[in-house]
Amino acid sequence: MTIDDGMALLHDVPLKPEDTLPRPLGPCGLCAMTHTSPDPDAPIALDHEHLADSAFWTAPSSHRARVFAELRRVAPVRHYPARRSGFSRACTECWALTRYDDIWTASRTPSVYCSGVTIDIEEMPDELGEFYPSMINLDDPEHGRLRRIVASGFTPKQIAAGVPALQQIAASIIDDLLDRYGDGSEFDLVAEVSSRLPLRAICSMVGVPEADQGLILEWTNAAVSPDDPSVGVEGAAAALRSIADYAIALGRERLAHPTGDLTTVLMHAEVDGERLTPTEFANFVILLLSAGNETTRNAITHGVRLLTANPDQRQIWFDDFPSHAATAVEEIVRYEPLISNMCRVLTRDVELHGITLQAGEKVALWYPSANFDERTFTDPERFDVRRPVHPQQGGYGAGGPHFCLGANLARREMTVLFDEIRRRTPDLAATGEPERVVSMALTSIRSVQA
Question: How far is CA 333 from the centre of its chain?
């Protein structure tokens, strides 16, 4: 089997169609700065856990896994009141869905679980709100029209055509790594390896010159981190404004001097006979650059960490790389979903597990829980690079019209880079504890030693 044969398995993965009353929540009273690790052997008390509290997201990941498991077992639909914690933004009340089948059904029923009101648990301050009406926040028909504008750039055929360029980038990354750290000295895995391929790939697609890509990395890192105290709402808003201003300037240049990049496509595209407004265009570019850079960078980082922690799985994959490439990259995302949650707002009343959710209420879909649902996955706690791609993991959005447009690109980037690592630096390993971005939306790692 070739690598292309293995990746073809993923290109054709179909999107899956498809008891107790909520209990009052007691106060957690802890913020990110004062949280102490819970007793790993103590029973889980759901009344003392709040999924939208910073204390939950600064606790050990093993604790979150236990909470999600308990929710799946006894409270697969649970109400959480509004909460102000150590996050920069307050979190609104919502229902939490934690079982795989419920989350896939919600994702594939946009007429009931809509995206056009909000996709965030957190409150949306005015400083950020102007940058978020992109296709990810819209419902059909508006969502479909905007998605079709750029979809042609992300087809399996287009992604396959870009593989030689990705291979050159991957080779240059490892060349540089060996030149600078070949003596065995430590380095930051995120800065020196994980961030470089997805950044260069998406910037090339959009048309950002190499000289400006450092700025894009800096801005997108801040733009997706409004809840991290080191960034905050003001820092994220400033970064979003910088990307928007840059995008509009680049768009004007492409309008006057067209090329073959996505910016040219967007600037000359028409939706219902009208061009995109400057705001629509800028928000499109923000989405492309942020999602294309942030998520795959974290997938690569998590992949190295998982292979470090599971050397037997590294051996299995690297001994027969082409045969296991498709399943391995999917297993990395199953085990460490790149996005923790998305919200939907109900357009009508829905009954789930004996509980009535009312029209207008917010529902949070928790992908880390879905991906470890023991009703769906055999031995979900085990990291297995040979795990079948069916049933499909939910880390790319659990199907439906909002399934990640860049999933094929992310899979290909991971495959190309890990192939280069296998051939030239097979012992590459994470050696330190990761510094995580404080967020309940993304599983982001700011840095980790290797």
Answer: 9
Interhelix angle 196-206/407-424, rounded to 10 degrees, is 140
pLDDT in tens, 204-249: 989 999 999 999 999 998 988 888 888 988 999 999 999 999 999 9
Reference 335, options 391, 393, 378; nearest CA is: 393
pTM: 0.88
Average pLDDT over residues 323-349: 96
- Bridge partners of 435, per DSSP, are 447
Q: For residues 341 and 346, give the distance between their C-alpha atoms in angstroms, rounded to a whole number.
A: 16
Is residue 259 classed exposed, middle or buried when 0-12, 13-18 and 19+ CB atoms within 10 A define those classes? exposed
Is 26 a residue whose pLDDT tops 80?
no
Q: What are phi and psi of 345, to 5 degrees?
A: -115, 130
What is the C-alpha to C-alpha distance for residues 218 and 239, in angstroms, rounded to an integer? Answer: 8
pLDDT at 133 (0 to 100): 65
If one counts every other C-beta atom within 10 angstroms of the C-beta of residue 70, the result is 16
Q: Which residues contact 411 (CB under 8 A, 6 or more apart)?
A: 7, 10, 326, 329, 330
State the Cα–Cα distance between residues 164 and 75, nearest whole angstrom: 48
Give the per-residue pLDDT at 137: 85
**CB contact burial 86-102 (16+ within 10 A = b; e otherwise):** bbbbebbebbbbbbbbb
**Residue 412: both structure tokens together:** 């290909």
